[in-house]
Amino acid sequence: MIRVHAFMVRLPSVSRDEFREHYEEIHVPTALPILGGTRTYVRHHVREELHGKPPFDCMTLFEYPDAATVAAVFARVAGPEAATVHADEDTFMHVPSNFYFPVEPGPAWQAAPEREAREVALVCARRARHEDAKRFRERFASSALAQVRSALEDPAWIRAHWPQTHDARYDATLLVGAGRVGGLAQAARELERDGGEVVALRVSVHATEMDR
Asked: How far, in Å, CA of 119 to CA of 176, rounded?
């Protein structure tokens, strides 16, 4: 499975509510014809900034079964059949500011027995300049995830991802489900004490069922 995190940015003239409404009601149906073969298509729209100012308004998760499917989708995106999709993007996205990178699964945690997550949060972390990627991942896996979990009320699950490219905007992205996620604001401040950068956001999740 190949996973990509794509970070989408709205036009300055478009509010987050307008961006989310357009994305879900207009853009998703417009884009579906060129996404054939995609296994997972889930948008995580920013609803509240718990800590930090994110340079994006939505994180979209794409999952593909193999490299051949990725190549086919990207070929359609670059081809004439995507003209309507790109024209629509220009009406509500600041396309030059969008960024994306492939990711691989990192550490995860699941409550036992499983619990329903009433709220979902997205945490994006960037390591300090003096810290190498290997050390960052070791530290994050051994202590940061525990800090995140302890900050949650009725934690349900945590899923971390590592970037697969050295120039990715973030060194870790976490999706977090819990009864309440507001405590992540303090956890994010503590995680920044090493000189890194953290944004913690309450998000709403919008998934599209894809053909298999």
From this structure: 8
Give the C-alpha separation, 42 to 122, whole Å.
Answer: 13
Using DSSP, state whether 92 is helix, strand or coil: helix
| Domain with 20 in it | 2-100
CATH number of domain containing 120: 3.30.70.100
Q: What is the mean pLDDT of residues 162-169?
A: 94
Q: Dihedral through CA 208, CA 83, CA 97, CA 198, nearest 10?
A: 10
Q: How many domains is the chain built from?
A: 2
Q: How far is CA 165 from CA 52, 145, 162, 206, in A?
A: 24, 22, 9, 26
Cα–Cα dist 206/182, whole Å:
21
Name the H helices within 79-175: 83-92, 133-139, 145-150
Mean pLDDT of the chain: 95
How far, in Å, CA of 65 to CA of 44, rounded?
21
Report the share of the chain in percent with pLDDT over 90: 88
- 26 — pLDDT class (breaks 50, 70, 90): very high
Over residues 83-100, mean pLDDT: 97
Q: Quote the pLDDT of residue 211.
A: 74
